[in-house]
Please model this.
Amino acid sequence: MAGECADCARGVDHCHGALVVHDDGGVECTGPDCADVDPARHGMVMDCAGTLPGCCVARPVAVLVAS
Model:
């Protein structure tokens, strides 16, 4: 098949979607049928805060005040 990716041609378990890593450590894939979010299966892994504006909003930081 022309245009088939090399991993597909070799039968390597992989995903064509991008893995998105959230600030809270959660992950999700942009691939509609991805069933395994192991980073090793994804050719693209991205941090949502640095890549997707508004996805992971900066959380307020607790400030300790000495009394």
Q: What stands out?
A: The two ends are 71 Å apart (CA to CA). The chain has two helices and three strands. The first helix runs from residue 6 to 10.
